[in-house]
């Protein structure tokens, strides 16, 4: 029997770090989590479509984009039965402990990685100590390897405690594309939760600081658009073409001209554009990836509607058509003050915690807000906390890393918080 997770936090985190898998491709990651959860022993274990309705997923990739990730997971020893269950990219797992009468408590941790090639520089600790990503095109550049480690270790700690009630841990896929929060929030596992926690490492808060609850996460949406025109010889007869590249240029310019709103902050961006075939051909197809954000869900909706209209109008101006798809989105949800106080009290006295900050603006977006929103709408309380870590470079960079002292801090804070709201046997 392997040692308790709390005795091997670093080794588990490093193992997960070595095998980073992006959204809806977390096949080996899910397998590895299930291994740990089966070793601990839980009362209900739901993988992929057992945990949510696949039809509720957002930003799911095409089947052909999944095959090499399945093969890679299989080569590394992933359980074949689990791979069959996860067919089509239905990754992730929900684990439940039933401990008699008492409140229902939930914890959500995210499990996906990013399409970033990890640094090989000797000054980068994962490279120096041999746990750099084994996949050149992907990396845990946002700390989700630490989050998963917390989830497994907290589950084990609660099982070994006097907690009374139901404890559910959501190991959620596809956070980076805002794709997995919605289906898990709509599932039966998210029904009637009394207290719900989500957590993130770092975010420019140093090791030793705990933010008990975030405020003002930005509602957001991801948009994928394809401009379709007509090709022509750019020198001989450019007038015979309908130029998708011109439509793109107009779309980009006009996107950044979308008026800001008097009710609060909005954001809009075109982050990627790709298309055309050659310098002497009028481009007949261009693909664009963009996003809209807002300080509230309503402000995001305002910006999203105008972004979609702008893309369609730009296409029409140049005789083209635009196929615009809102591939994913997430609402704003704030931490409840009542649960923020619980987290703050739980953090005080934890070894390694030097500063407890009640609240802080999040400044980015998160699809854990789907789960928070459902819990709050059904009368429960939710809090999204931050466990600080000294990261040498920013999140989403090739040299991102976490201070592994934050692993035990996060486990202790989350365990104390869950026990504080749970019943006692």
Task: Walk me through this protein's architecture.
With 425 residues, this protein is of the alpha/beta class. It has two domains: 5-217 and 333-424, 3-Layer(aba) Sandwich (Aminopeptidase), CATH 3.40.630.10; 219-330, 2-Layer Sandwich (Alpha-Beta Plaits), CATH 3.30.70.360. 32% of the residues lie in helices and 23% in strands. It has helices at 9-18, 27-40, 67-75, 80-85, 125-128, 144-159, 181-186, 244-255, 297-317, 337-347, 368-377, 405-421; strands at 44-47, 93-99, 104-110, 163-172, 195-201, 209-215, 219-228, 266-275, 285-294, 321-330, 355-361, 381-387, 423-424. The strands form two sheets. Strands 1, 2, 3, 4, 5, 6, 11, 12 and 13 form a nine-stranded mixed β-sheet that branches. The longest helix has 21 residues, at 297-317. The mean pLDDT is 97.
Please tally the helical runs, counting DSSP H or I stretches of 4 or more residues: 12
State the name of the first-level CATH class of the largest domain.
Answer: Alpha Beta
Over all CA atoms, what is the radius of gyration? 23 Å
What is the domain total for the residues?
2
The structure class reads alpha/beta
Low-confidence stretches: none
* Estimated share of beta-strand residues: 15-25%
Overall morphology: globular
| Name of the CATH architecture of the largest domain | 3-Layer(aba) Sandwich
- Can you say what the CATH homologous superfamily of the largest domain is? Zn peptidases
Helix and strand pattern: HHEHHEEHHEHEEEHEEHEHEHEHE
**Mind summarizing the main beta sheet?**
9 strands, mixed
Organism: Halogranum amylolyticum
Keywords: Manganese, Metal-binding
GO molecular function: dipeptidase activity; metal ion binding; para-aminobenzoyl-glutamate hydrolase activity
Domain Peptidase M20 dimerisation: 223-314
């Amino acid at each position: 029997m392997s040692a308790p997770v709390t005795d091997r936090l670093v080794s588990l985190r490093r193992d997960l770090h070595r095998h980073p898998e992006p959204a809806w491709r977390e096949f080996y990651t899910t397998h590895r989590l299930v291994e740990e959860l089966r070793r601990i022993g839980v009362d209900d274990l739901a993988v992929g479509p057992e945990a949510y309705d696949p039809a509720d997923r957002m930003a799911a990739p095409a089947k052909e984009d999944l095959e090499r990730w399945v093969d890679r997971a299989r080569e590394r020893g992933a359980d074949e039965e689990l791979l069959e269950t996860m067919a089509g990219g239905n990754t992730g797992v929900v684990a439940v402990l039933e401990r008699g009468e008492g409140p229902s408590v939930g914890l959500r941790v995210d499990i996906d990685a990013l399409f970033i090639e990890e640094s090989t520089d000797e000054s980068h600790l994962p490279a120096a100590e041999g746990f750099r990503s084994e996949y050149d095109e992907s990396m845990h550049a946002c700390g989700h390897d630490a989050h998963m480690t917390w989830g497994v270790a907290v589950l084990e700690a609660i099982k070994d405690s006097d907690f009374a009630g139901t404890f559910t841990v959501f190991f959620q896929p596809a956070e980076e594309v805002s794709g997995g929060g919605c289906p898990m929030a709509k599932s039966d596992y998210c029904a009637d939760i009394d207290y719900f926690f989500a957590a993130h490492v770092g975010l420019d808060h140093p090791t030793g600081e705990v933010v008990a609850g975030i405020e003002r996460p930005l509602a957001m949406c991801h948009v994928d658009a394809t401009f379709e025109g007509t090709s022509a010889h750019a020198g001989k007869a450019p007038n015979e073409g309908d130029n998708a590249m011109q439509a793109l240029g107009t779309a980009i310019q006009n996107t950044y001209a979308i008026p800001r709103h008097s009710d609060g902050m909005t954001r809009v961006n075109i982050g990627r554009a790709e298309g055309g075939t050659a310098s002497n051909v009028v481009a007949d197809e261009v693909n664009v990836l963009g996003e809209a954000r807002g300080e509230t869900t309503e402000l995001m909706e305002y910006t999203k509607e105008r972004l979609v209209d702008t893309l369609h109008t730009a296409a029409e101006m140049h005789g083209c058509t635009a196929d615009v798809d809102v591939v994913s989105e997430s609402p704003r949800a704030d931490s409840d003050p009542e649960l923020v106080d619980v987290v703050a009290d739980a953090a005080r006295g934890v070894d390694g915690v030097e500063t407890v900050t009640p609240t802080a603006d999040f400044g980015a977006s998160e699809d854990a807000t789907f789960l928070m929103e459902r819990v709050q709408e059904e009368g429960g309380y939710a809090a999204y906390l931050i466990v600080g870590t000294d990261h040498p470079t920013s999140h989403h960079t090739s040299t991102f890393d976490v201070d592994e002292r934050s692993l035990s801090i996060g486990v202790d804070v989350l365990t104390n918080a869950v026990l504080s709201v749970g019943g006692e046997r």
